[in-house]
Amino acid sequence: MTLITRHGRVGGRLLLAVVLAAGLAVSACSFPSSAAQSTQTAAPSSLAPSSPATDQAGSGPGAFGSMSEACIAVSATMFSVTILPLAGLMGGKSEDVEKAQAELAKVQGQVSDELRPQFEKLKAFTESAGTDFSKYGSGEFEEAMKPIEEWLDKNCK
C-alpha cells in the first residue's frame, strides 16, 4: 500500500509539473502577438483578404484568426501528445491516445501549409503506435514532434 501511495504522489507531482509547464508555454506564446494583433485589427479591411491567403501558404496562422491563436492551439495539441509517455507510466488508457489523435486531426486541418506534413507524420506515428505507450518514449516519437516544436520556437516567442 505504501508503494502505491508513494508512486501516486510522485505521479501526481509529475503531472502537476507538466500541466504548469504547459500552461506557461501556452501563455508565453500569446503575449508577444497580442499587441501586434490589435494593430492588425485596426488596419483597413481592404488589406485583410490578401493576408490570409499568404498566411495559409506559408508559416502564418493558417485558418486560425491570428498567430497567437495558432500558437495556443498548436501548443495545446502538442501538450496532449507530449503527455502520452506520462500517461503510459500512470497506466495509460486507449482514451488518452484517442484524444491526442483527435486533437492532431482537428488542428492539422487548420494549421499553415508548412505545418500540415509535420502533423500528418505525428498523427501517423500515433496511429501506428496505438496504445503501445512504450513507443511514445522512443526516438522516433521525438523526431516526429521535433519540427512542430521548432515551429513553435520560431513563431511563438
TrEMBL record:
Biased composition (Low complexity): 42-54
Signal sequence, start to end: 1-35
Residue span of region Disordered: 42-63
PROSITE patterns reported for this sequence: PROKAR_LIPOPROTEIN (PS51257)
UniProt keyword terms in alphabetical order: Signal
Protein name: Lipoprotein
Species this protein is from: Arthrobacter cavernae
